[in-house]
Amino acid sequence: MLLAAAAACALAVAAGPLSAQQLDQTTWRTRLGESRPLEPSEIDQLLDATRLAAGGRAFHLTAERGSFASDIVVERDGHVHYIRSQFASGEAFTEFTGRIARYCDGTVASGEMVFEYRRTEAGWVVEARPSSPADLLRPVFDMLVGLKPLVDAGVTSDGGRALTAAWNLNARGRSPGGGGARAASTFVLADPTVSGVETLVIDPLSLLPARWEFTFSSAISPAEPVTASYRFAFDPTLVLAPPVTSAPVPACADRSRSLSPR
Predict the structure, then answer these.
(1) Of 154, 22, 20, 21, which is closest to residue 9 (Cα–Cα)?
(2) Spatial distance between the Cα atoms of 70 and 94, rounded to a whole number of angstroms
(3) Is 53 in a helix, a strand, or coil?
(4) Cα separation, 188 vs 204, whole angstroms
(5) Number of CB atoms found within 10 A of residue 26's CB
(6) Are 124 and 247 a contacting pair, CB within 8 Å?
(7) Which residues of the chain have pLDDT under 50?
(8) Residue in 70, 28, 69, 74 with CA at minimum distance from that of residue 54
(9) Closest by alpha carbon to 227, among 85, 64, 62, 59?
(10) Which end of the chain is more exposed for a tag (fewer CB within 10 A), N or C?
């Protein structure tokens, strides 16, 4: 049986890179513990596996510093579906529908249709808007979806595997890391005075995202980089669904009304 397994493994290597579905958790656990850098194709496969592992499973995302916390569900492709957040002004629930956003005049908007629920003294109210690059936690999920050029940063001190993406560093210097073409470009922020590196850490045991960090500096304080860190805590008892409300859910986005994403 050992010879058969070895032969099967040899055939798989000869056939080329395995898909995320073919690579089981034992294989990933071994690979993610190695110091050898992940190849670009392996980074793609790892993200596929992480999205599949996280898809449909609710989790708490909490800041290590400060009071920020949200409950979230992502789809199996990594796109965010639900976000429930508490603010000083009340509670909000955001539903990303995955459907094309349209304004009420019939024109197509950029992005997908998003429903924003907000609790008021009179109950829940709901408005529709197109998604925006400024949406809450957009940087985290753009990284999970794979919209940014990622570089393997190796094994972390707590045993995770880190993937990094540079923000605006091309404006200040050469992008760090290997990865060939993936490291040649950086993800550009709207504010060119801020530059840094964001990191997504994957747990090798579960293949779930464990934390996201952003280490950055600005033109105001370039010598004092700041790190913002958020942790994923998956909770099988957590259930998210849009609030029950008597208010009608809009069929289109009202162009005349401005609803700032939180």
Answers:
(1) 22
(2) 11
(3) helix
(4) 29
(5) 8
(6) yes
(7) 1-22, 171-188, 258-262
(8) 74
(9) 64
(10) N
Q: Report yes or no: 117 and 242 within 8 Å, Cβ to Cβ.
A: yes
**Other CB atoms within 10 A of residue 92 CB:** 20
Q: Max CA-CA distance within the chain?
A: 70
Rounded to 5 degrees, what are φ and ψ at 49?
-65, -40
Of 214, 172, 177, 173, the residue nearest 196 (C-alpha): 214
| Whole-number Å distance between alpha carbons of 105 and 43 | 43
Question: Tokens 């190695």 label which residue?
Answer: 34
Residue given tokens 């395995």 in the structure block: 18
Distance of alpha carbon 76 from alpha carbon 49, whole angstroms: 9
Domain boundaries, the chain: 138-234
221/192 Cα distance (integer angstroms): 14
Q: Tokens representing 72?
A: 């979230």
**Cβ proximity of 261 and 141 under 8 Å:** no
pTM of the model as a whole: 0.79
Q: What is the pLDDT of residues 154-210, one digit of tens each?
A: 999 999 999 999 876 554 433 333 333 333 344 445 566 777 889 999 999 999 999
